[in-house]
Amino acid sequence: MPSDFLDVSGRRIETAWWGPPPTAAPTLVLLHEGLGCIELWRDVPALLAEATGCGVFAYARLGYGQSDPKPLPWPLSYMQDEARDVVPRILDAADIRDAILLGHSDGGSIAAVYAGEARDPRLRALIMIAAHFFVEEQNIASIRQIREEYAQGELRGRLAKYHRDPDMAFHGWCDSWLHPDFRAFDITASLPGIAVPTLALQGADDPYGSAAQLRVLQQNVRAPLQTLLIPAARHAPHLEAKRPTLDAIAQFVASTMARWRRPQCPTA
């Protein structure tokens, strides 16, 4: 998967494309997790392009992958800031005309804020995998555990294969979540503003969040909403239970595209 770079407000952002360009089909825009990057989506982007007929576009946020640095410490509002200040510039720079945001974990939270606040006519649908809308104790406990693994185990070495500065990527995320003031993180006020069809997926055994995250969506999203708890999956069902996850996404995209007047994504 060859990557490229976009200039966004004078910063170099690593990007990659699969499938047709935005002039030919709608685009699934992938927003990665808190320790993710383009490569850590593995083969999922190619499979999504094949299953939906859509283009697939992924980028690495500042401080991740090969994108420009994002100096520490990060503001505790880093997810909301990304949604409000960076995502619209990315869509502009990539010339995306019809977007389906697909966010995993932190990326799902970013996508939710954007969908709930931006009123962007380019946004056609929203897909979230293991997104966080508020802080749960099990989430904090799991991040404390991974902090120990980073300090004492092999995690830093593994992340160094994917991030030009693994310490920046790790501590930007981890130190924010474990800051005492981060307990106040809550983006549920953005959810009633979501006005596009929405699909939310979560692993039944996710150590970072419970089914309460899906219930918050059910209580607050007024647009058409589908939620699915995926058995035998933890925090990354698109990798751990790939077939049911990708099938659910492809079916959702097909049903959503059927309502469009503009180019539709054929099913595989």
Describe the structure.
- The protein has 268 residues and is of the alpha/beta class.
- 37% of the residues lie in helices and 18% in strands.
- It has helices at residues 44-52, 78-93, 106-117, 137-152, 155-160, 166-177, 212-220, 237-240, 242-257, and strands at 4-8, 11-18, 27-31, 55-59, 99-104, 123-129, 198-203, 225-230.
- Helix 1 (44-52) packs parallel to helix 9 and helix 2 (78-93) packs across helix 3.
- The chain is globular and about 50 Å long.
- It starts with a strand and ends in an 11-residue tail after the last helix.
- The mean pLDDT is 95.
Q: Can I get a quick summary?
A:
With 268 residues, the protein is α/β, with parallel strands linked by helices.
Write the layout of secondary structure elements.
Layout: E1 4-8, E2 11-18, E3 27-31, H1 44-52, E4 55-59, H2 78-93, E5 99-104, H3 106-117, E6 123-129, H4 137-152, H5 155-160, H6 166-177, E7 198-203, H7 212-220, E8 225-230, H8 237-240, H9 242-257
Parallel strand pairs: 3-4, 3-5, 5-6, 6-7, 7-8
Antiparallel strand pairs: 1-2, 2-4
Helix pairs in contact: 1-9, 2-3
Low-confidence stretches: none
Taken in chain order, the helices and strands follow as EEEHEHEHEHHHEHEHH
Q: Between the first and last Cα atoms, what is the distance in angstroms?
A: 22 Å
Would you tell me the structural class of the helices and strands? Answer: alpha/beta
Largest sheet: 8 strands, mixed
Topology, number of strands = 8
| Count of discrete alpha- or pi-helical segments spanning 4 or more residues | 9
- Biggest sheet: strand arrangement: 1-2-4-3-5-6-7-8
Residue fraction in strands: 15-25%
Report helical residue fraction: 25-40%
